[in-house]
Amino acid sequence: MLLMTTGSPLVKRGLADMLKGGVIMDVVTPEQARIAEDAGAVAVMALERVPADIRAQGGVARMSDPDLISAIIETVSIPVMAKARIGHFVEAQVLQHLKVDYIDESEVLSPADYVHHIDKQAFTVPFVCGATNLGEALRRIAEGAAMIRSKGEAGTGDVSEATKHIRTIRGEIARLHATYQANPDELYAAAKELSAPYDLVREVAETGALPVVLFTAGGVATPADAALMMQLGADGVFVGSGIFKSGDPAARAAAIVKATALYNDPAAITEASRGLGEAMVGINVADLPAPHRLAERGW
Amino acid sequence: MSAVTVGVLALQGGVREHVRLLEELDARTVPLRTPSDLVGPDGLRVDALVLPGGESSTIDRLLRIFGLFEPLRDAVAGGLPTLGTCAGLILLAREVLDPAPGQQSLGVLDVTVRRNAFGSQVDSAELDLDTVDGPVNVAFIRAPQVVSVGPGVDVLARRDQAIVGVRQGAITGIAFHPELTGEPLFHRRLLETATASTPPARSVA
Lengths: 299, 205
Fold this sequence. Notes:
The complex is a heterodimer. Chain A is α/β, with parallel strands linked by helices. Chain A contains 13 helices and 9 strands. In chain A, strands 2-3-4-5-6-7-8-9 form an 8-stranded parallel barrel, surrounded by 8 helices. In chain A, α2 (30-39) links the parallel β2 (23-27) and β3 (43-46). The radius of gyration of chain A is 18 Å and the shape is globular. Chain A starts with a strand and ends in a 26-residue tail after the last helix. Chain B is globular and about 45 Å long. Chain B has a 7-stranded mixed beta sheet. Chain B is α/β, with parallel strands linked by helices. Mean pLDDT of chain B is 95; it is low at 200-205. Chain B has a single domain (5-196), classed as Rossmann fold, CATH 3.40.50.880.
């Protein structure tokens, strides 16, 4: 008889490990999911509205219709992710029942709880969560997140917030690692400042890395944007509105996949950038009034 | 004796974990992204090959886009000791069931594999497995299984009835991830095979 464990941290983090170097694409129909798979996406995010439309249409944004998610799972052979509202553990129960491969507890949807995030350790299905800084990332990991993505500012096509968040997280990790080497007794105060559990802070300080995969998200619209994120140290890229709000989604999707794989090769990124037609129009984050900034949701 | 040089296909997926495990076993590793990483003017630049886990349809597509598909196929078919895990097993297989549209494989290992044969991620699991080389603790992540093997292919491991590990000559294909649990058995065996088959000229290079 085999001794078998499902839903362990290793198994949950393991799928994220296999997504490294890849592009995860937002899709709102089975047809878009097929285009994403054909373009070389490592996974798709099934949702009803891409962030740009959620932003434009307003209202409360919730988990997608189970019929839509099931139809997308039926259509593609690659992993399917879906979003639950922050703190909405029943949406997460539904998504686990639907056998999605990953749940994104996402600030792109309207939060269901302004105090508590989902207790992700209680689930077999793994979770990815957004973070704008290291403390936030470690709080999510303590709750059971098996993958972190920098938040960026979804639905804008403006990559500046994604840049800020990945630089912040990577920079804080580097400083923690330096503290560990110089003055390990200062890690207690560091844990307090980060508002994160000491054991996790110490682990990051010792290894100089997050214990889970770090992707980036929010505002990526071009092959060069994706390669920028990878050169800044992301393990992979989520692309939301940037593909299916552009002029030629299939070509743009394939180009972003190429640029993500060969992110250190300017010749390859140049080739991938040619002839893609119009990028999504976009909104400058600086022009967004504060209440409409999604990255500020979650804590 | 100089270290064995292992090329680890690094287009997408769980590359880092293989590199770490190989370096713990005192191998030298080289990431493979372009044809010139694999083949130089004097022939092959590596003594062995690891095809890691990842998304097999993505890796296949990138192999073809970057012109690595044929050089890799020729190197493995030419006898280069090779270990493929999960998506790597799928890439090696002669036939792939439930492929993504247009998905191809190198066709160098005489087996038929079914992608994602054990269910979705909630069915992914860590488990203890008996193999012909000894017991191992490994992870199955949306794993494939081998549904048929040709003559000359040895079965290394089964999970219940399903074939999950095979060997044909210098090629080993496994449906699971020893690199996630840090299980060194298969990598050690790869390095032994490479050491035994490496001509002296290359081992001093």
